[in-house]
Structures are given as C-alpha cells and as structure tokens.
Specification:
InterPro entries: DNA-bd_dom_put_sf (IPR009061), MerR-type_HTH_dom (IPR000551), MerR_fam (IPR047057), TipA-like_antibiotic-bd (IPR036244), TipAS_dom (IPR012925)
Organism: Bhargavaea changchunensis
Strand order of the largest sheet: 1-3-2
Order of helices and strands: EHHEEHHHHHHHHH
CATH class of the largest domain: Mainly Alpha
Protein name: MerR family transcriptional regulator
CATH superfamily of the largest domain: Antibiotic binding domain of TipA-like multidrug resistance regulators
Structural class: mainly alpha
CATH topology of the largest domain: Globin-like
CATH architecture of the largest domain: Orthogonal Bundle
Pfam family, one: MerR_1
Number of helices: 11
Keywords: Activator, Coiled coil, DNA-binding, Transcription, Transcription regulation
Length: 249
C-alpha cells in the first residue's frame, strides 16, 4: 500500500516538513515518486520511519541513525530488541526521577527531609550506552578502517591474522583460571591489545575496556569465545578492564 506524505504525517504524527527534511538528507526517501513529483511511502518506508523514531526517542542524532540504517550489518529484529531494552531502562530511570520529584515536593512542604544523595537519584549524565552498543553492532569509522586494513593484506594476510588471533585466544584461555590481575595474564592481555591496535584502529583504554564488556553483554560473543573454554569471555572482560584501568591511572 502506498501513502501520500500527508497520509503518513496524519498516521504517524510526524510533520510533513520533517518528512521532507528526512528525504532531503537521505535518511528516509520514499520508494515511489510520481511523475508529478509527489512522494509515496510504502510499508517498508513506514518500517524505516518507525526505526528512526525509536532511535530518536533514545537520543540518537540523525546522522548516526542514517549510518546505522545504511550499515550492511544492520538487522531490524536485532535493533528492535536493543530499542526495547533501552526504552525499558529509560522508563525505569524516569520512574526514579518521578519518585525523586515527589520526595522533593514533600521536602519543600516540610513533610519529609531528604538527604543530599536522595535529591539527585535518577539523574544520569553518562554517555548513551545504547549508542555505544549500536556502534559495536552496526559499525562506525573504526570498523571501516579495520575492514580496509583487512582488505589491504589480501586473503593470505587475512588467513595469517586468523591464525594469530586463534593462537592468542588459546594462550589466554589456558590462563582463564588464574588471577586476571597477575603479571602473566596482563602481559598476555597486552599482546591482545597490541594485536587489535595493529588492525587499522587504535583502541584507547576506554574502547578496549568497552570491547571486553561486549564479550559478556552480547551472547553471540560469549558463545563464540566460550568455545575456547567455559568462562573465557568473562575472564577476558575482567582482564581487559584491569589493563584499561592501569593505563588510565
């Protein structure tokens, strides 16, 4: 079914002006345009618009949304699950802020006395963790550079990189029952960090730590890594966090 721009605006609550803007910047261009120049939106276009609105609700910039939607790795179902998780967390945070506001009103009336800590419960000024997750899943400039680096070395070079990666993983997996902060483990984790940095992108301590967290937050990573030994993903996340913290101190 095809819908005119006004019909889409009436259906979704998104203004015609906004829809025209999305078209101009290449974020959402309708599949069909009549000979007279009228935009006609398909069901697939509406699905894309829904994705855009979910991402906007979560604080993503239009440019970043466009990058995600155009990524060859983008998966709609995966995105919907991530958005659901993010919105549930946002709802929980808003509930905390409402409780703080209710207490503040009571405090102002003299009915209760709030502690300084209670006055700021629910506020969160950290970076959007779901945008970080989206970057990990659907690519960014760092991923592009890594892919280009792989392309530059050719098939034989890629095969050698795979051999090196597996060797490092097996070496680290054999240490997974040791203390992650030990000198031996940290030396091996340093080798893993150096290996990643040789792949066309420099991993800052924070990015290296974030990658380790992804190993345990994304079940796909966990499942693949734990093939080297039960608990390997968690061990890597812990060891990588320790290295990152030491580099930042």
């Amino acid at each position: 079914m095809l819908r005119k721009v006004k019909e889409v605006a009436d259906l979704t609550g998104v203004s015609i002006r906004t829809l025209h803007h999305y078209d101009r910047i290449g974020l959402l261009s309708p599949e069909h345009v009549t000979e007279a120049g009228y935009r006609q939106y398909s069901d697939r276009d509406l699905e894309t618009l829904q994705q855009i609105l979910f991402f906007r609700e979560l604080g993503f910039q239009l440019k970043r949304i466009g990058e995600i939607l155009k990524s060859p790795d983008f998966d709609r179902e995966d995105a919907l699950l991530l958005q659901r998780e993010a919105l549930l967390e946002k709802r929980a945070r808003l509930d905390r802020m409402i409780r703080t506001l209710d207490k503040t009103i009571q405090d102002a009336k003299g009915e209760i006395e709030m502690t300084d800590k209670e006055k700021f419960e629910g506020f969160d000024f950290t970076n959007n963790p779901y945008e970080d997750e989206a970057r990990q899943r659907w690519g960014d400039e760092a991923v592009d550079r890594s892919n280009q680096a792989l392309a530059n070395v050719g098939p034989e070079g890629q095969k050698q990189i795979g051999v090196q990666m597996e060797a490092l993983f097996r070496k680290l997996a054999a240490m997974r029952h040791q203390n992650a902060a030990s000198d031996e483990v940290q030396q091996a984790i340093g080798e893993w960090h150096a290996f990643l940095n040789s792949m066309g992108h420099t991993y800052s301590p924070q990015a290296f730590k974030g990658l380790g967290q992804l190993y345990i937050q994304d079940e796909r990573f966990t499942k693949n890594m734990d093939k080297f030994g039960d608990g390997f993903a968690r061990f890597m996340a812990e060891a990588m966090a320790i290295r990152a913290n030491r580099l930042q101190s």
